[in-house]
Amino acid sequence: MNIISDSENVRLDNYLISKLSMSRSQIQRLIKQENITVNDRKVKSGYLIKKDDTIKINYEQPDDSLKGENIALNIVYEDDDLLVVDKENGMVVHPAVGNTHKTLVNALLYYSKNLSSINGSFRPGIVHRIDAYTTGLLMVAKNDFTHEALAKQLALKTTTREYVALVHGRINHDTGTIDAPIGRDEENRKKMSVTKNGKKAVTHFKVLKRFKEATLIELRLETGRTHQIRVHMAYIGYPIVNDPVYGKRKLINDEGQCLHAKKLGFVHPRTNEYLEFTSDIPAKILKIMKNYEE
Questions:
Q1: CATH architecture of 66-156
Q2: Where are the domains of the chain?
Q3: Which of 3.40.50.720, 3.30.2350.10, 3.40.30.10, 3.30.930.10 is the CATH number of 160-294?
């Protein structure tokens, strides 16, 4: 596919985001792989395009017709408008380029014919997400009315979202707040980091139990930035145990970080009733915690 630029002095990645139904990370990956060139030359994501530049995109658009897959779901609540799912370890929430199978969305498409369409064909029903190797509670919308209402609650920070995590190091103070902006890491674009040009991110935590070389904490989010808890805890020197990206110590296994979305609360868009759900700490984290018992 070729695009003739109709703009001037706009970053290449920003320009393509406005033209294509692709994420920034997808576009930047294609640029790095030289599958996107300008005037047949290799460029970087920050290249400032000029009017009449020829942008060549070597990319085959994936088939949007995702298929439902018979994958077991742990559904803790369901009615005509929404679902609350307790996501297992290792399950990706929604498909992306190169990964269109065995996600939560594939399981949802098999389970229900009614899912909201606001986030497009690759994210039906998905109002918010958690990392593949973070376990716990997610709300799923069955229609656009519910999706819009739940998304608004998230934006207004009126939902209850609490996590539990096992972190390296012994935290001596009982509570804390991390108020530090998060954005894409300038040296490694696959990672997030605390950066002055990032978006506002606030995480509150309190200590539940101290071990000799680790601490079990409860966390409450004010904002929902990508990898927020993992980035914030690493930033203050207490990275999540077994985190393969932001951790600083040898991994215990390949089952992902010790982070669990344990509580989710929101006002039901149809009934205006406040609903709250909790999920027990999974066996995976409990097993790792035993390694730190004195």
A1: 2-Layer Sandwich (3.30)
A2: 2-57, 66-156, 160-294
A3: 3.30.2350.10
One-character DSSP codes across the chain: -EEE---SSEEHHHHHHHHSS--HHHHHHHHHTT-EEETTB---TT-EE-TT-EEEE--PPPP-----------EEEE-SSEEEEEEPTT--SS-BTTB-SSSHHHHHHHH-S----TT-TTSTTBSS---TT-EEEEEEESSHHHHHHHHHHHHHT-SEEEEEEEEES---SSEEEEE--EEE-SS-TTSEEE-TTSB--EEEEEEEEE-SSEEEEEEEESS--TTHHHHHHHHTT-PBTT-TTT--S--S-SS--SEEEEEEEEE-TTT--EEEEE-PPPHHHHHHHGGG--
CATH class of 2-57: alpha beta
User: Does the annotation mark 185 as catalytic?
Assistant: no
> pLDDT tens digits for 267-290?
999 999 999 999 999 999 999 999
Which pTM was predicted?
0.78
What tens digit of pLDDT does each residue of 153-210 get? 998 999 999 999 999 999 999 999 999 999 988 888 779 999 998 999 999 999 999 9
Q: Which of 131, 144, 179, 254 is catalytic?
A: 131
